[in-house]
Amino acid sequence: MLAGCASPAPEPSATTLPPTTPTPSATPDPLAGLTVEQRVGQVFMVGTTASAAEGATLDAVRDRFVGGVFLSGRSSAGTAATAGVVAQFTAAASPDRPLLVATDQEGGQVQVLSGPGFSEMPSALDQGATDAASLQTSATAWARELASAGVNMNLAPVVDLIPSREAAASNPPIGGYDREFAFDAEGIVSHADAFRAGMTAGGVTSVIKHFPGLGAVTANTDDTAGVTDTTTNAQSDSVGIYRSEIASGADTIMVSSAIYAQIDSKAPAVFSPTVVTGLLREGLEFDGVIITDDLSGATQVAGWSPADRAILAIEAGCDIVLVSRTPTVAAEMIDAVVAKAQSDPAFADLIDAAARRVLASKDAQ
To answer: Are 315 and 341 in contact (CB under 8 A)?
Structure first.
């Protein structure tokens, strides 16, 4: 080093800062900006004949913001004609909140849509006689047919457990139409899983039904009052089927309107917080969408006013009120629910929770 020459000062080292973690943006509230009327609309599904867009149903979609329609009865017009009917409803709906468009496409005697473009589906009993892999392949094809017609929800499969082939003869709602996959829980679960997987692959949401089971009743809630199951309880195999289905991804469940004396003898299941919230939501830990069986024209619920039917179902914990057979009562139901939501904060919270689940289901499609 030369005398008299100072060493150059070292360059300051750069300070290494810890990486920054971006602040996550808040998840948008799907209900933000929606009025009470619009929120209530999301928790209703209103029926129309499958072959035509009924005026009462169009009004419900356009004027009362109803979020779902159900194609009922029978149509043999085919996929193109069905798509034309559906298009009338989608045109009337809000473009930023797509409709749930549902039907009953189980097979056999319970197949609403047929004709050009739709397969002739075998009954569930015949479906259950095939291997599960083949059923899944068939269900995928059936779902694609539905999707081509604008249908995105199928109120199927039936997972009700009838204890024996002999018992089916005295079970009008299920055995009377060969709607059961099998007479044992294992056979039902394997084929329900396959049917659901096929529907999902084809772009259609499936709905398992009728919780907690219609396999032990001896009358049909559609045309009989006071239908009561005296044997099913929370530990029954029929309930265990739902536990299995939930574990394997079932995300939408229909609740029966029968009375279950061993669970809640005081009210039909759709009106029972013990059944819907206590057993299904809390006991089976189901966090998906819960839809009622028909609350418009079923004899089982005729003893309650249409307004009370809708309110009681929501208070029990249901997310979608199905108004399928008699769409003309939808306006009365919806108006009553809106009025209660406007005057009762606790009820309004139930509406909000239900609407969020319905909108989440739509977003997942």
So the answer is: no
